[in-house]
Amino acid sequence: MRHYDTALLRDIDHKHYYHPFTNHPEMWSKGTRIITKADNVYIYDSDGNRYLDAMSGLWCVNIGYGRHELAEIAKQQMEQLPYYNSFFQTAQLPAVELSEMLASLTPAGLNRTFFGCSGSDANDTIVRLVRHFWTCQGYPEKNIIVSRKNAYHGSTIAGSSLGGMTTMHAQGGLPIPNIMHINQPYYFREGEGMTPEEFGLERARELEKLILDTGPDRVAAFIGEPIQGAGGVIIPPDNYWPEINRICKKYDVLLCADEVICGFGRTGNWFGSQTLGIDADVLTLAKGLSSGYQPISAVVFSERIGDVLDKKGGEFTHGYTYSGHPVACAVALKNLQIMRDEKIIENAQQNTLDYLQSKIALLGKHPLIGEARGCGFLGALELVKDPQTKEKYDENATAGKTCRDIAIKHGIVMRAIGDSMVMCPPLIITREQIDEMYGLILETLNQTQDALNH
Ligand code: PXG
Question: 49-70 burial by CB neighbour count: b if 16+ within 10 A, else e?
Answer without folding.
Answer: eebbbbbbbebbbbbbbebeeb
